[in-house]
Design goal:
The chain has 128 residues and is of the alpha/beta class. The protein is built from 5 helices and 5 strands; from the N terminus they run βαβαβαβαβα. The protein is globular and about 35 Å long.
Amino acid sequence: MPKHILIIDDDQSILELFRLILEPEGYQVTIAKSAFENVHEIEQLNPDLIVLDFKLGRQEDGFLLLQKIKMYRPTKDIPIILCTAAVDIVVEQENVLREKGIPILYKPFDIDELLRVVERELEAPPIN
């Protein structure tokens, strides 16, 4: 059964790019253009990995969703890759995010770098 990756980004072209890169690699890809209001929806999708944009719209809704996912017991162990172009904002949080085992992929990213990070996160044991 292919690994299921949930991509959450507010840019449709980025979502399609992720799909074009990851599906030929054998991954099942689900895309979402906005943050989930209810973390139960993510639980029901049961992804093996989430690639999450830090900024969704003009707000840091991605960061808020990251906090919700990690604080909700059924989703807390799903690995998350934070993908963002908001370098200036994320740099302030980078050390804490890395301590928590949340890698950051800065846009624009290299395709090989994306594939390496995805593979590594899918193979890594959960960090408690």
